[in-house]
């Protein structure tokens, strides 16, 4: 599915018709051809290509708008992660050029050899192989940057592929409080700048 990167505007995400269509098509695939509710009220019972009282997949009625509003945050946070990884890939962040950014999860061991399941929203190695960027993506308001940085550093301390590299913690957030001098915080405006 395609999403227009212009959905990010200022401090929020604009639910364009294109984004709404992507959301509803994804839900229709998961629910066997009907909208999230399963009743067909947000996409017609025709499975997405017809049906519905307006003859199209996206019906602009109060039920459809209500469904979109109710679940937009969930879908937005998923797209926020994807957009953040895209913005890092092949770009310069704080003076360093990074390669392909990916998501990473797995089991790692701490200093006492105790296993931990961890997940990282963004991981990218610098092209000179000296740094590893690890990022957390948050689409909620008022994230505490210092707390997120500590969590990222704790996770990085257990990553086998980060050994011997400088760890660069990056917080991708709608907005953040308690920012530190040792972590980079990138907001939607920063993402838009990277993607120019």
User: Which spans have pLDDT < 50 for at least 5 consecutive residues?
Assistant: 1-19, 34-41, 43-57
Whole-angstrom Rg: 20 Å
Question: What structural category arises from helix and sheet content?
Answer: alpha/beta
Strand order of the largest sheet: 5-6-7-9-11
DSSP helical segment count: 4
Mean pLDDT over the full residue set: 78
What sequence of helices (H) and strands (E) makes up the elements?
A: EEHHEEEEEEHEEEH
The count of β-strands is: 11
The biggest sheet, with number of strands, parallel, antiparallel or mixed sense and barrel status, is:
5 strands, mixed
Beta-strand percentage range:
25-35%
In helices, the fraction of residues equals 25-40%
- End-to-end separation in angstroms reads 21 Å
**Gross geometry:** globular
Describe this structure in words.
By secondary structure, the chain is of the alpha/beta class. The chain has helices at residues 17-30, 62-88, 145-156, 188-194, and strands at 8-9, 12-13, 92-93, 96-97, 102-109, 115-125, 131-138, 143-144, 166-173, 176-177, 184-186. The protein has four helices and eleven strands; from the N terminus they run ββααββββββαβββα. A hairpin with a 5-residue loop joins strand 5 (102-109) and strand 6. It starts with 7 loop residues before the first strand and ends with a helix.
């Amino acid at each position: 599915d395609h999403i227009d990167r212009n959905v990010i505007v200022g401090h929020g995400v604009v639910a364009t018709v294109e984004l709404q269509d992507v959301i509803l098509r994804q839900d229709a695939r998961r629910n066997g051809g009907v909208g999230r509710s399963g009743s067909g009220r947000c996409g017609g019972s025709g499975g997405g290509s017809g049906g519905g009282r307006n003859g199209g997949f996206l019906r602009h009625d109060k039920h459809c708008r209500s469904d979109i509003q109710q679940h937009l945050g969930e879908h937005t946070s998923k797209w926020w992660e994807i957009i953040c990884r895209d913005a890092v890939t092949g770009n310069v962040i704080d003076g360093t050029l990074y390669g392909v950014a990916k998501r990473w999860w797995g089991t790692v061991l701490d200093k006492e050899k105790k296993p931990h399941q961890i997940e990282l929203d963004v991981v990218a190695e610098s092209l000179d192989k000296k740094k590893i960027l690890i990022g957390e993506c948050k689409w909620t308001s008022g994230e505490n940057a210092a707390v997120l940085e500590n969590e990222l550093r704790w996770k990085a301390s257990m990553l086998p592929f980060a050994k011997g590299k400088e760890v660069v913690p990056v917080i991708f957030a709608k907005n953040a409080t308690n920012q530190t001098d040792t972590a980079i915080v990138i907001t939607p405006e920063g993402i838009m700048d990277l993607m120019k």
